[in-house]
Amino acid sequence: MDGVPITVEFTGGLDMLFSNKRKHSLSLPAVDENGNPSNMAYLVRYLCNNLMTDRRKEFFVVDDSIRPGILVLVNDADWELEGEGEYVLQNGDEILFVSTLHGG
């Protein structure tokens, strides 16, 4: 199977975890390591294992889930409306991770 081209963007300071680069164009495998269609849960694992350059994964994930305080949008819709980790990635999807956690 071919890859699934998607765009991933990090804002609110999350870009510091990913080479200080805000927008990434990726082509993910169409199926995950278990042979299932690549979904958001796979994307999160992929990002942590392949794209994250900062060792502090706890700023992004807690117990293999997106950390509370990070808003995730799939094509401008809250991922909670799309099934969260179960959402199967589609060609051209735009995924946005926004940290709402701020120091002060």
Short description:
The protein has 104 residues and is mostly beta strands.
Can you offer a commentary on this structure?
The chain is mainly β. The protein has one helix and seven strands, in the order ββαβββββ. It has one helix at residues 40-51, and strands at 4-11, 23-28, 61-62, 65-66, 70-74, 77-78, 94-99. The strands form two sheets. Strands 2-1-7-5-6 form a five-stranded mixed beta sheet, with no helix packed on it. A hairpin with a 2-residue loop joins strand 3 and strand 4. The radius of gyration is 13 Å and the shape is globular.
Layout of secondary structure:
Layout: E1 4-11, E2 23-28, H1 40-51, E3 61-62, E4 65-66, E5 70-74, E6 77-78, E7 94-99
Parallel strand pairs: 1-7
Antiparallel strand pairs: 1-2, 3-4, 5-6, 5-7
Strand order, biggest sheet?
A: 2-1-7-5-6
Please provide the count of β strands. 7
Q: DSSP strand (E) fraction?
A: 25-35%
Mean pLDDT: 91
Apparent shape: globular
| Class based on secondary structure composition and strand pairing | mainly beta
CA gyration radius, whole angstroms: 13 Å
What's the number of helices? 1
Uncertain ranges: none
As a percent range, the share of helical residues equals: 10-25%
Biggest pleated-sheet summary: 5 strands, mixed
Separation of the first and last Cα atoms: 47 Å
- SSE run: EEHEEEEE
